[in-house]
TrEMBL record, chains A, B:
GO BP annotations, alphabetical order: glycerol biosynthetic process; glycerophospholipid metabolic process
CC cofactor note: Divalent metal ions. Mg(2+) is the most effective.
Catalysed reactions, semicolon-separated: O-phospho-L-tyrosyl-[protein] + H2O = L-tyrosyl-[protein] + phosphate; sn-glycerol 1-phosphate + H2O = glycerol + phosphate; sn-glycerol 3-phosphate + H2O = glycerol + phosphate
Entry GO MF terms: metal ion binding; protein tyrosine phosphatase activity; sn-glycerol 3-phosphatase activity
Classification lineage: Eukaryota, Metazoa, Chordata, Craniata, Vertebrata
Record-listed E.C. numbers: 3.1.3.21, 3.1.3.48
Residue sites binding Mg(2+) per the record: 27, 29, 245
Residues reported in the UniProt entry to bind substrate: 220
Protein name as catalogued: Glycerol-3-phosphate phosphatase
UniProt organism field: Hippocampus comes (Tiger tail seahorse)
Length: 306, 306
């Protein structure tokens, strides 16, 4: 129904929405925590949802943590979660390479130690982790030693990203049979105080430009994140709620997968941006209009406690 | 006249073309040399053009050499040229910042020592040259010390490109008054044997993605390279010939500036690609169809010796 989206959620409406879903997917940063601080009330929301028999999952584009690292962080911040409930792009990209690509061979990894661990957990070896400094001249770069059994380039967040890594990725990707996968396209990692640092999207764009190829991406808004949850647990899209702070990733994922969507204002996106998308008349931007919004997920507490 | 473009140049037609121009602009790599080898006959072509009273200029997107370095390389390969005749993007980006932007302040440089030298030659100081390794955590990156008098970010080829440089560029570019300039958008540097390494375009794309801003670029096909020549020497566009091996940079520059254009097949682009552009019916691609082509610029020798 036109005009019925982007509605502020409270009171009876919140109760109705929660009654209409069996599963809730939460983004993490900007939704249940900010940096190293839990959003006040968020641990209790998660706890009450579970008490009401809802399945709860955490889906994040951050590729720098394993599921175990997430559970540890959540525990420190007062959340009760198990590894099974956590879907980060370090884990999901390993699953993607294993189950969708059925990769036979190694990965050239531009990424983190967490990605290495998640790859190894599904039996995929990697090469490339850590610094890779420049040496020699252009002809040396073009003839840099490559490992013959590398069959995929995987790009995630990598603080050691360098020209040499970009070059090595290009040399692997000029092989005909080399797959090309990225964890996500987030252009910036927002930090407290309105600052930000470059995100994985910048690194992926550099590699794509060099390789003149486009990577398949695993993270939100690509539907693989949801498929990953749905393949392990029974999740009916129409009875699932996606809660996030970003219109272009979280809400877009929900729209792409036919989920109900809830924007929370404790992170990146604003109601004004959602309304601008709604009024734009641009069909792609309609996917970036949430069904509902709240100031904070703590606004769900009355409906869960009532 | 439709159908009269992309004509093979020889015999009388070559004589007519040369008689119709006063100035000839040459791209360098793939046109007058390949790597460290002169194209056979190319030094003699340049010499004879000058003997016939033609002004000759060298315009290159390569940002790793000063004009002096170019003249030295040309001398080694048997070409007779002066610094005044050479227009590389290291030099042209310094001129652009000085004369077009009228920059008051420093440059944060992602680039080469040659770029530093050309900037200093016009009185612009830089910061950023050389390696910049990662340290600390995300909050340290967002709060990396910045120099207050930096008023422009300039991106050229930089083998020390790193995540920290990308981050530093982002932090400078979030300042309201920071200019953003790139030397060129070439995505790859082609080498002998069909290999290639990543070009400046990859680095620029990464910075643009992080900054969510588009850089002004100085190099071909941007017309600034031609304006740079034309502002120092009297060059009438209609009586000027652009000779290059790349359709997307050299020939496009010629089209953008109303020059006559000649594709030489000793480098990157092919006649088939030129013909595909011509037949595409796409107006942007018509700029990537040369007026004429030769196998090598040595094919001009008979017309010059006759």
């Amino acid at each position: 129904m036109a005009g019925s989206k982007c509605v502020r959620l409270s009171g009876e409406l919140a109760k109705q929405l929660l009654a209409s879903v069996d599963s809730v997917l939460f983004d993490c940063d900007g939704v249940i925590w900010r940096g190293d601080q839990a959003i006040p009330g968020a641990p209790r929301v998660i706890e009450l949802l579970k008490e009401h028999g809802k399945k709860v999952f955490f889906v994040t584009n951050n590729s720098t943590k394993t599921r175990k690292m997430y559970v540890d962080k959540m525990s420190t911040l007062g959340f009760n979660a198990s590894e099974d409930e956590v879907f980060g792009t370090a884990y999901c990209s390993a699953i993607y390479l294993k189950t969708v690509c059925k990769l036979q061979g190694k990965v050239y990894l531009i990424g983190s130690n967490a990605m290495k661990q998640e790859l190894e957990a599904v039996g995929i070896q990697q090469t490339g982790l850590g610094p890779d400094h420049i040496f020699g001249k252009q002809t040396d770069w073009a003839n840099v030693p490559l490992e013959p059994d590398v069959k995929a380039v995987l790009v995630g967040f990598d603080e050691h990203f360098s020209y040499m890594k970009l070059n090595r990725a290009l040399q692997y990707l000029t092989r005909m049979d080399c797959l090309f996968v990225g964890t996500n396209r987030d252009t910036r990692l927002p930090l407290e105080g309105g600052t930000a640092v470059p995100g994985t999207g910048c690194l992926l764009q550099a590699v794509e430009t060099a390789a003149q190829r486009q990577a398949a991406t695993v993270g939100k808004p690509s539907r693989f994140m949801f498929d990953c949850v749905a393949s392990k647990f029974h999740v009916e899209p129409g009875r699932c709620l996606m809660v996030g702070d970003r219109l272009d990733t979280d809400i877009m994922l929900g729209s792409n997968c036919g989920l109900k969507t809830l924007l929370t204002l404790t992170g990146v996106s604003t109601v004004a941006e959602a309304e601008a998308n709604q009024k734009s008349g641009c069909s792609e931007r309609q996917g970036m209009v949430p069904d509902y919004y709240v100031e904070s997920i703590a606004d769900l507490l009355p409906a869960l406690q009532g």
